[in-house]
Design a protein that fits this description.
With 314 residues, this protein is of the alpha/beta class. It has helices spanning 16-29, 47-57, 72-82, 102-110, 128-146, 162-167, 178-184, 210-228, 233-260, 271-299; strands spanning 3-9, 34-40, 61-66, 87-90, 116-120, 158-161, 190-194, 308-312. It has an eight-stranded mixed sheet with strand order 7-5-6-4-1-2-3-8, with helices on both faces. Helix 2 links the parallel strand 2 (34-40) and strand 3 (61-66). The longest helix has 29 residues, at 271-299. The two termini are 15 Å apart. Bound molecules: uridine-5'-diphosphate (UDP) and magnesium ion (MG).
């Protein structure tokens, strides 16, 4: 199979028929063998009925329906698990991404041998203040932290070599950082392609301002988990020991002073006495946190689990 399209959606019933028709046209023109995997992320409109109907007319269309809304990352994760195509392309369901980009994206994976090609909405049709400016900031920070030179990490339109999507685990709200996950999984050939972006035709955006707060928290945990999840003691143990040794040093100094001047030296009046106490305790706490994290990470199954209500074609 040449291409798997993975399309997460939440309440996008009006857009789906138009999107499916457009995709079919592009696929036929290029004679691709393909599948479209619609992942219904707990829609409350009739999106799932529309998907069923589209499938009855075109058997390349498949669907996964979640029992409730788990988020875009979960939807991508389940779509990635079943995708069979040599090239896997993700796109949003709201017609903001253009299926006309598919042939060029596929070519960049197959001929130019890239592992991941991320779309870049150079000219965006979103509200400037609430989206474009925070998004510039978000991208700049992610570029710095990850060392990957992309302008638009969060673009829904991306193409992958099949092996890439099978090697990464997109959980929480990590869909914003898929290029980072891919890089850490060992895929180095990552690039971007400017893509056409279109205004939303039907429905409303499903992400509010909270995306930015969550985005930055995710970046912190991504950085931390990526570095230390498998070896928490290297972080907590190190800082725990440093604090503990500082505390111990001060305590020893105080004890020796007390022995030298047993009468004039008032131990509990001194600020460094309290410093010694707190650093010793903080050091112990950090060490313990590291130890527990170590036990947890050794036992963690590391598998996401989402309840799927229905499937079609898979
Ligand atoms: N989406 C989803 N689950 C969610 C939120 C969004 O599957 O919990 C889908 C949504 O239906 C769309 C894509 O993710 O296909 C991008 O969402 P949206 O267009 O609302 O984001 P924006 O373009 O405003 O960044
Ligand atoms: Mg959109």
């Amino acid at each position: 199979m040449d291409i798997s399209l993975v399309i997460p959606l939440l309440d996008e019933a009006e857009s789906l028929p138009e999107l499916a028709a457009w995709i079919e046209k592009v696929m036929l023109e290029n004679r691709y063998s393909y599948e479209v995997i619609f992942v219904d992320d707990g829609s409350t409109d009739n999106s799932w009925d529309v998907i069923q109907e589209l499938r009855s007319k075109n058997s390349n269309i498949k669907g996964i329906k979640f029992q409730r809304n788990y988020g875009k990352s979960a939807a991508l994760y389940e779509g990635f698990r079943v995708a069979q195509g040599e090239v896997v392309i993700t796109m949003d369901a709201d017609l903001q991404d253009s299926p006309d980009e598919i042939p060029e994206l596929r070519k960049m994976i197959i001929q130019d041998r890239y592992d991941l090609v991320s779309g870049w909405k150079k000219k965006r049709y979103d509200n400037t203040l609430t989206k474009n400016i925070p998004s510039k900031l978000f991208n700049a920070v992610t570029r710095r932290v990850s060392g990957i030179k992309l302008h638009d990490f969060n673009c829904g339109l991306k193409a992958y070599r099949n092996k890439v999507v099978k090697s990464i685990e997109v959980y929480g709200e990590m869909h914003r950082y898929i290029p980072v996950l891919a890089k850490w999984a060992g895929f180095k050939k990552i690039t971007e392609k400017t893509v056409e972006h279109r205004p939303r035709k039907y429905g409303v955006s499903k992400f509010g301002w909270r995306r930015f707060v969550n985005g930055f928290l995710d970046l912190l945990s991504l950085r931390f988990v990526g570095k230390f999840a498998k070896r928490p003691m290297h972080f907590f143990g190190l800082w725990g020991s440093i604090f503990f040794l500082i505390g111990l040093g001060i305590a020893l100094y105080l004890i020796i002073s007390k022995f030298i001047h047993p009468t004039t030296f008032a131990l509990t009046n001194r600020p460094d006495f309290y410093l010694a106490l707190t650093t010793l305790i903080v050091g112990m706490q950090l060490f313990l946190a590291g130890f527990i994290a170590e036990l947890v990470s050794r036992n963690a199954a590391g598998r996401n689990f989402y309840l799927i209500e229905d499937k079609t074609g898979l």
